[in-house]
Design a protein that fits this description.
about 90 residues; 3 helices; about 0% strand; globular; mainly alpha
């Protein structure tokens, strides 16, 4: 069964992301904060997925794209570094 058809643990409340208005002159950090505020579930799920992968001994990243489809779930690639740094700051172990 393809991953996107499976009931994946901890992914039952994934929601379409809310994209705030972007204003000229905003830094990447400002745009990230504007995105993160209405979408706090994204960080929770990334942390849960990372913890699950670590617990299972995965050495490669899990593919979120196989569990979701369409633009409603697409994350801005510019925020990747922020979504890496936040969990590291919150869970330095």
């Amino acid at each position: 069964m393809p991953v996107h058809q499976q009931q994946l643990p901890g992914l039952d409340d994934i929601q379409p992301v809310q994209h705030p208005a972007i204003h000229p002159g905003q830094s990447i950090q400002q745009r990230f904060e504007a995105f993160h505020d209405p979408n706090p579930w994204v960080l929770r799920h990334l942390e849960a997925l990372a913890a699950d992968c670590v617990a299972k001994g995965f050495r490669r990243r899990w593919r979120y794209g196989e569990a979701t489809q369409g633009d409603a779930f697409r994350l801005n690639n510019n925020f990747r570094s922020r979504y890496v740094r936040l969990p590291i700051e919150r869970h330095p172990e």
